[in-house]
Write a structure and sequence with these properties.
Largest sheet: 6 strands, mixed
Radius of gyration: 30 Å
Oligomer: single chain
Number of helices: 6
Distance between the termini: 40 Å
Helix content: 25-40%
Structural class: alpha/beta
Number of strands: 11
Length: about 210
């Protein structure tokens, strides 16, 4: 790195302005030495550059927006009482907080062009069944997924809200979407009392997954 330091001439000495080296002063006797002023300036310069380097490195580790890519994310859901809609809204908000765009739609209104225009997709449903018997994704959600076009290797996240247990809901969603060519990269099940739980981590995994080639 090249820098320029100007040193005020000292009495009885000849001062030099130096590029890329320490400023020097030559005495009438031919002795050359670094002036006290130059030492202070150089020390200050070194400390400043070091601090800037540390700050940049720390920012890369802690800044949640540093180095992120912009994505268009479709968040589609099937909701009965509104809790899964709240979970979907939390996922969409977490995606937007990462600097990407999120489109929120019900699965029933999701069209082929929505899948086509999305870089990534999050799909959620509520869990239906009788505590331990026939527990799984809502039938309406599976029917809607069956109507979706091929997803073409795009990253997909699945989520659900449940009352007692999700059992195999996420696995069923994953298999249904993988049959459409989805690359399922994240899964999250949240109790209906806290439907937004897990949304931030789901969005983080979805938005940092490799895009389809």
């Amino acid at each position: 790195m090249t820098f320029y330091i100007a040193i005020t001439p000292l009495s009885g000495h000849t001062s030099f302005r130096w590029f890329g080296l320490s400023a020097c002063s030559a005495s009438p006797k031919g002795q050359t030495f670094i002036t006290g002023t130059a030492q202070v300036v150089l020390a200050t310069f070194y400390v400043t550059i070091t601090l800037l380097s540390w700050t940049h490195e720390l920012r890369g580790r802690t800044d949640p927006g540093h180095g992120r890519k912009h994505m268009n994310v479709l968040v589609a859901y099937e909701s009965r009482s509104g809790r899964t809609r709240r979970a979907a809204e939390a996922v969409a908000a977490a995606v937007r907080a990462r600097g990407s765009d999120a489109i929120l739609k019900t699965l029933a209104e999701t069209a082929a062009e929505d899948i086509e225009h999305a870089d990534a997709v999050a799909i959620g449903t509520w869990v239906e069944g009788f505590i331990v018997a026939k527990v799984g994704p809502a039938k309406a959600a599976l029917e809607a997924i069956g109507q979706l076009p091929a997803i073409g290797g795009k990253p997909v996240a699945v989520f659900c809200t449940y009352g007692v247990t999700p059992r195999t809901t996420l696995a069923t969603l994953r298999r249904s979407l993988e049959a459409k060519g989805a690359n399922v990269v994240a899964e999250s099940a949240s109790h209906r009392s806290h439907p937004d739980r897990g949304a931030a981590e789901l969005a983080q995994r979805l938005c940092t997954a490799p895009e389809a080639t």
